[in-house]
Design a protein that fits this description.
mainly alpha, 2 helices
């Protein structure tokens, strides 16, 4: 999944993340690569991944 610079900036703004101008292309390339790999994993293991909870339950730590 190849994202554009404009899409990256919009996503960053949505979560109040400031990416310095000189880092935008590097972040864009890395995020595009990560999303592409995640698409491949989803294609290969999607049905199996749907059988488990995405995040294990986390219980609050009790203070003693």
């Amino acid at each position: 999944m190849d994202i554009t610079k404009e899409q990256l900036i919009a996503m960053a703004k949505a979560v109040s993340l400031d990416i310095p101008e000189h880092d935008i292309e590097n972040v864009r390339l890395r995020l595009s690569t990560l999303l592409t790999e995640m698409e491949g994993i989803e294609r290969e293991l999607g049905a199996e991944m749907d059988k488990v909870e995405p995040v294990p339950p986390v219980y609050p730590r009790e203070d003693f």
